[in-house]
Structure prediction request, 120 residues.
Amino acid sequence: MDEIPVPHMLDPDRLVVNSRGDFADHDQAEFVPHLENALRESCEYGQRLWHELDAVRAYLLDSLPPAGPSTPDSPVVLRDEESWSRWMTAYASLTSLLAGPEGDSGYGEQEARHEMQMRH
Prediction:
């Protein structure tokens, strides 16, 4: 998998006003609109990321075989313990990330374990 660089808008130091890395009082009035715009752009991008990650989380659930006894036409997505473990880690990580900086207090991990137990 090729590495994708972190987008420029996620760099908190991208708005440097002068060579010292700070700004004088007379610069503040000019700097505020730039800060407001940067915050707006970052929030819009963050919201897009949140919605896309939420869609990936839904996809992860939808990709599982149905709960209950297997049938011949059931998709077999996860065949071994390692595959289930990787699925659970991905699902729990996404759920925790979607909950915000404080995380989800283990909710995603519990939900992933529950789904695995129902379907494995």
Q: What stands out?
A: The chain has a mean pLDDT of 82. The chain has one domain: 22-119. The longest helix spans residues 25-62. The CA atoms of residues 46 and 52 lie 10 Å apart.
